[in-house]
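Bench notes, bay 3.
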Amino acid sequence: MSFKDIFKDDNTYNEKTVIGFMSFAVMVIVMVADVISGMVGNDLPINEFTYNSFVIVTLGSFGIAGLEKFAKK
């Protein structure tokens, strides 16, 4: 399966879950980088607006995917 097949209507992947996982992965990477830079003694400035945007995308993606799982089609 190629990358463009993921975005077809008749695939086995849930695109919302993929986007939610990618957003969550970015949040985890940023937090790990923040902890490591804090241990070294440097300050890693993180824009609150940007981080909150990733939180909203993650919760929205997983929330919609979860709702679709239990909603009748």
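Next record in the batch:
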Amino acid sequence: MSLLIRNGEIVTATDRYVADILCDGDTITQIGKNLAAPPGAEIIDASGKFVFPGFIDPHTHIYLPFMGTFAKDDYTSASQAALIGGTTTIIEMICPSRKEEPLEAFELWKGKGVGKSACDFTFHMGVTKFDSSSESQLKEIVKAGLSSFKIFLAYKGAFGIDDTELYHTLKLAKSLGVITTAHCENDTAVLERQRELLAAGKTGPEYHHESRPPMVEAEGTHHLMSFAAMHDAHVYVVHLSCEESLAAAMAARFRGVNVWVETLIQYLLIDKTYAEKPNFEGAKYVMSPPLRDKKNQKVLWDGLASGLISTLATDHAPFDFATQKQMGKDDFTKIPNGIPAIEDRVNLYYTHGVAGEGAAKISLNRFVETASTNAAKLFGLFPRKGTIALGSDADLVIFDPKYRGNLSVKTQRQNIDYNAFEGWPIKGRPSVVTVRGKVAVRDGKFVGDATRGQFLKRDPNHF
């Protein structure tokens, strides 16, 4: 059955105009004024609403074995939560341990999503070790449809790689045309600071930030840039949180390094005082890199508006407060790192970036570009995803800017016992969300096919 969306204000990264959109099958087949409805077509009147391309979250964790436990979401809950919030494509990080083989991990993570996801999905392949065996397997994984790696310059002894492995991973990535996404911190500095703080009896969640201060993140970013320059490798700094790290990345860009930057919705809106809440409430907000001093928020907003920062993600990593976060009750280094945000990213970004008090921090076009289009371009999905154009997938978000409501654990679809933005008001939300031409969400409720999501194969595009 065809779908005709009438009279909406279409907004892409570059355009803004009122028109109709006709979707046949999975794709957009016509865009124009006063389009005729085919027999039997479903018609949606989008008058007074925006029509955005489906949003893309380029950094999520759905299946995540981490710090002795597992993230609470699965593809059923996470994909539906994403869609309710307007995100129609998610990119998950495959994070094998150093003992796991890459191909085995790829099949494991992929199997968690195939036949279980309501939205489309793909992966960044975690490189947590590098030897001749893993190199050959990584080549096979790229042939199987992944065009990005993920490395950690943190979590020594777990996900982290050493400098020899970093050197050869970036060399391989360049030869394959793969972009390497990277968690940038200096793992030695983190480990030593953790030991010093614990020895001094400083065990609460408020000390998490002190164990990973901005200089530690900036040094990790600079370190990645040096190795990337050796191979002319294309790199992408994930979850950048502070001015110091952004300065390191931009200095490298000025020198000619091919680097792009991602930040998170959390860093734009909440700060390190949240991790200092009493009665261990601060554990809800422990993540790495940590929430920073509030002064960094303007830097990050300005970076998104100006183009220094390309994408806005979540690093969605849900761990229950009542059980899992309590693992670090007497030792902040044992608090599972992560904040849930896959459901709320788009609504919070619109509320505080576009519809906030006074002048908008970002334009509507830039809102779409940073929350959808740039991720599609960087990770080999454009123009199938990330825009509204003939032949593009009919992933569409009909967004009602007049909606008013509040975020709450009581109404969320995310499978976790708290909301990091509990009680926060939002201005606007998706009223209808489609996945490849089929309605998946109406008025904040999932109404679609819980297994419609497809694994997206991608070709390398960073030669």
